[in-house]
Amino acid sequence: MKKKIARALLSIQAVFLRPDQPFTWASGIKSPIYCDNRLTLTAPKVRTQVEEGLKSLIEKHYPQAEVLMGTSTAGIAHAAITAHLMGLPMGYVRSGNKDHGRGNRIEGKLEAGQKVVVVEDLISTGGSVLEVVQALREAGAQVLGVVSIFTYGMKKGLDRMAQEQVENHSLTDLDTLVEVAAQEGYIAPGDVERLLAFRDNPSDESWMAK
């Protein structure tokens, strides 16, 4: 599964690996990778693989799931399609409360005690998805865990998720993606070490000089 999804993301350029011309994140961090999983929505074959993959993860790890909740905005479409495949209700969680109407942060019907799985597209440091989990917990939901398309596997993200007792299962991860990319010629074999060094400590730019 992990290699299949990694191959699919690379094939539609949902993931760019560019160690010699790093991208700059909003935080200012220089990154050899850029991930845009929104592109899966416009690639029907890959989209099907992703949504069926998310369905499989939920059925395997969270068989008691009663509601799927997408993260705003990137997780909404994936939550909706996966919920449709599973015959489950879905909703989504805004980054903040609306400033009009009912002022909702959680959209869609959610009852206290319901077992919820959060659907996210990408996890790096874990900050945004943990905010969603906290909002759902405050609303009385029982958050079983998270499913996501891709995770960097950064130590900061792993530690934060563990601290908040939030379990995540991703379709693929940076380690798998880098392995497949090297095998299929997207990057040079020597770039593997550099990409993994970035994952280990994104704030340390020494990987750029390797």
Condensed summary:
By secondary structure, the protein is α/β, with parallel strands linked by helices.
If you compute it from the alpha carbons, what radius of gyration comes out, rounded to the nearest whole angstrom? 17 Å
Number of helices: 7
Order of helices and strands: HEEEEHEHEEEHEHEHH
Described by the principal axes of the CA atoms, the overall outline is: globular
Ranges where pLDDT stays below 50 over 5 or more residues in a row are none
Measured distance between first and last alpha carbons: 31 Å
- Kindly state the number of beta strands: 10
Write the layout of secondary structure elements.
Blueprint: H1 2-11, E1 15-17, E2 23-24, E3 30-31, E4 33-35, H2 44-61, E5 67-71, H3 76-86, E6 90-93, E7 106-107, E8 115-123, H4 127-138, E9 142-151, H5 155-163, E10 168-173, H6 174-183, H7 191-200
Parallel strand pairs: 5-6, 5-8, 8-9, 9-10
Antiparallel strand pairs: 1-4, 2-3, 6-7
Helix pairs in contact: 1-6, 2-3, 6-7
Give a structural overview.
Helix content is 38%, strand content 22%. It has helices at residues 2-11, 44-61, 76-86, 127-138, 155-163, 174-183, 191-200; strands spanning 15-17, 23-24, 30-31, 33-35, 67-71, 90-93, 106-107, 115-123, 142-151, 168-173. α1 packs across α6, α2 packs across α3 (76-86) and α6 (174-183) runs antiparallel to α7. It is globular, with a radius of gyration of 17 Å. The chain starts with a helix and ends in a 10-residue tail after the last helix. 36% of the residues are buried.
